[in-house]
Amino acid sequence: MSTLIQTDRFALSAAERSAIEHEMHHYEDPRAASIEALKIVQKARGWVPDGAADAIGELLGIPASDVEGVATFYSQIFRQPVGRHIIRVCDSMTCFIGGHESILEALQHQLGIAPGQTTADGRFTLIPVCCLGNCDKAPALMIDDDTFGDVRSEGVAALLEAYP
Amino acid sequence: MTRSTTKMLASLGPANRVARNEETHPLTWRLRDDGQPVWLDEYQQKNGYAAARKALAEMAQADIVQTVKDSGLKGRGGAGFPTGVKWGLMPADEAQNIRYLLCNADEMEPNTWKDRLLMEQLPHLLVEGMLISARALKAYRGYIFLRGEYVDAAHNLNRAIEEAKAAGLLGKNILGSGFDFELFVHTGAGRYICGEETALINSLEGRRANPRAKPPFPAAVGVWGKPTCVNNVETLCNVPAIIGNGVDWYKSLARPGSEDMGSKLMGFSGKVKHPGIWELPFGISARELFEDYAGGMRDGYRLKCWQPGGAGTGFLLPEHLEAQMYAGGIAKVGTRMGTGLALAVDDTINMVSLLRNMEEFFARESCGWCTPCRDGLPWSVKILRALERGQGSRQDIDTLLQLVDFLGPGRTFCAHAPGAVEPLGSAVKYFRHEFEAGVAQEAKAPMQPA
């Protein structure tokens, strides 16, 4: 099975390994670096592939099942491939009042995907997110590390153009 | 549309534009008009770290704790527990010399954007607040638990920590006092529940963010089993001015009638003319916040109801705007002040739809640890969705009220579910007709004899 082969092949890169080892020194217990380790892998690869839990667990000296338990708990760790750009649409009540559902509809229409999905060309993944803390400029969304406020549904297409 | 980059931080807003001074605006007087971060040189020119120098050179650790206790400072994360009392719970036993100070910067409560302002624009205020607090608590290490989406805050805090280390304000033998303190930024990976202080400790340890049973409280058994104190960003940012200017000054800030001391970042959002945050004295009326600062409703909108401080607080009616903004003042009209960042609900918003949105959030963010929360919240979502579509059954409103009771304070492992049902209970109380309108026509019709 191809997935098994992929699993067996997973290995942390030297850069990932050294970044995780650096993080371990910030804590009393290596386990505490597990979330950061997952983020390091995700930053390099876009997502956390099967097998990463084993490799991280081995490095931190904790069971792979614990790493997987953490990976599946936190909403910003992706356990399946995602697009090159992540669109996070704030769905707080403040953005609801600000009209976020029309923004979400415009994005779904523009991209042809539902929340939680990735475009066929691998460019965008669309997900909801907890209050982005931009409530005086609702509705708000993030694309990768950029935060946008006072978003209008008619402006959504232009917004996406900056993310090839 | 506005795009926030390092050139323009998301937190730039009215707090940067109002007149403010050191005497009345201890949290925000150092903000720059242009909203750019205040780095070390400018922070020190504006009297920054003077309080830390005083605390480290002139004050015994117990004196710092006593001063904060006497000031009446209460936690600014929403629960309002007296900070000095929390500090006093740390063990007196000197042999327990490994202690931690954690800053709860996991700001994710819907309609809350106050800690972001402080961390993005005044990162040194938080570093100084943590330095003084760590000294008082005898903590040798601190972590700022920051939500992952606050990338500008993470950048600015890390830069501030580097500046402070280079200036001898963090690290070994700080300012020649013999006190050592190191500080790290720990960024999270999502999940609202991380803001619950024992869930935060689990998350910091690299575990799933399930809350822990209390007791033992974190002061006795916290992160890695050691005495730990968890304080909110805004709480810690109050500490330097209390130490610098003293208890009498701090107590003079609040308006008459307020039982809470000091100033508070308060806000109003929704379809108000000027949504924003302002540093205001405890005890101002909600009406003053709503009308004088937020400018009242935008033209064409009417205020239907409002929430005083985050998703976990109850809804109040326009007549309740007379209430004073402090814990007891809001309690008098039936709910909690929470974060003090209020939300205006206008007359175009259907309460069933709004509550459906809110309970979807609470259900999604439940950690799943205890049954009432894990099962009860999705149940409320299912009912609210049916009512929103006009397909509710006659029993639905009673079932919602039962859930409000079953998921209330004392019935669940942590405060997540009680926070989720507080707005639901108040929405049904004040706007029951909107929920009744969602009952399907056939369900409303009296049963016909066979």
Q: What are its keywords?
A:
heterodimer, A: 164 residues, alpha+beta, four-stranded mixed beta sheet, 8 helices, 45% helix, 12% strand, disordered N terminus, B: 450 residues, alpha/beta, four-stranded parallel beta sheet, 2Fe-2S (chain A), iron (chain A), NADH-quinone oxidoreductase subunit E (chain A), NuoE-like (chain A)
Amino-to-carboxy terminus distance of chain B = 61 Å
For the report, how would you describe the main beta sheet of chain B? 4 strands, parallel
Number of helices of chain A: 8
Shape of chain A: elongated
Oligomerization category of the chains in this entry = heterodimer
Large-scale geometry of chain B: globular
Give the distance, in angstroms, between the N- and C-terminal Cα atoms of chain A: 33 Å
Give the fraction of residues assigned to helices of chain B: 40-55%
Q: What structural category do the secondary elements of chain B indicate?
A: alpha/beta
Let me know the number of strands of chain B.
9
Which chains have the largest interface? A-B, 51 and 58 residues
Written overview of the protein:
The complex is a heterodimer of chains A (164) and B (450). The relative contact order of chain A is 0.12. Residues 1-7 of chain A have low confidence and may be disordered. In chain A, a hairpin with a 2-residue loop joins strand 3 and strand 4 (146-149). Chain A has helices at 2-9, 14-24, 34-45, 52-60, 64-73, 93-97, 100-111, 156-161, and strands spanning 85-90, 124-129, 141-143, 146-149. In chain A, helix 3 (34-45) packs across helix 4 (52-60). In chain A, strands 2-1-3-4 form a four-stranded mixed beta sheet, with helices on one face. Chain A is an alpha+beta fold. Helices cover 45% and strands 12% of the residues of chain A. Chain A has eight helices and four strands, in the order H-H-H-H-H-E-H-H-E-E-E-H. In chain B, the strands form two sheets. Chain B has a four-stranded parallel beta sheet with strand order 4-3-2-5, sandwiched between helices. Chain B has a four-stranded mixed beta sheet with strand order 7-6-9-8, covered by helices on one side. By secondary structure, chain B is an alpha/beta fold. In chain B, strand 6 (263-270) and strand 7 form a beta hairpin. Chain B has 17 helices and nine strands. The termini of chain B are far apart. Chain B has helices spanning 40-45, 50-58, 61-71, 83-88, 114-121, 123-137, 151-166, 197-204, 233-245, 247-251, 286-293, 327-332, 351-365, 371-388, 396-406, 416-436, 441-444; strands spanning 2-4, 100-105, 141-146, 182-187, 228-232, 263-270, 276-281, 303-307, 341-346. At the A-B interface, helix 3, helix 5, helix 6 and strand 4 of A face strand 1, strand 4, strand 6, strand 9 and helix 13 of B.
